Amino acid sequence: MSDQLDIEARLSELEQVRLTAFCATLSERMFPNFALFSRLAEFGDAQQLRQILNGVWDHLSNSGAKMNFEVQLDKVESNMPDLDAFDMYGASPALDSVLALFSTLSATLDNDASEAVAVLNLSRECVASYIEVTEGDDQMSDEELVRFINTHDMMLQEEAFVDTALELLEADGPFNPALVKQLRELGRNEDFSNIGISDQD
């Protein structure tokens, strides 16, 4: 497993297209969190965000399809739930998912490793929050809670997922549609999100 500073250093070494692919892979895995919330809360337009994320994958695959990512930023922003307006927990991971997509679009526009770090942190914090809300114990000290979260199976899976994505992106060889397909499949995670949510009926 890699620590946070090591991962950030590794991300800073990647070229822009690989940074964008890293963001897209984590965003793909987080997407069901928004899709399910959108359906249950009747909020936002999950299909619109699905098309935007598909557009990022098409861009990475060099399929010839064109999308103006700057224009899409406003559409993504309009799908961000206001946490004060919802009393259901699902709004929080849904917001994380939309913020991750926003950073993914930003990564396509600017060669900035901080966008990839932002997506990395959103995904990790989403998992940590879920573990705390569903399994945390009020009797735990802060140190015990941090240890509990960091050694939880779901967090270990999160770290393993990030490592796998990074290893694929760091491997020798060209950045090509075959690699993009592999990353997209990894991100789909058999239709389960980073916190085990699926929007499949």
UniProtKB/TrEMBL annotation:
Superkingdom of origin organism: Bacteria
InterPro entries registered for this protein in UniProt: DUF416 (IPR007338), YP001051499.1-like_dom_sf (IPR023381)
Entry-linked Pfam families: DUF416
Record's protein name: DUF416 domain-containing protein
Biological source species: Marinobacterium aestuarii
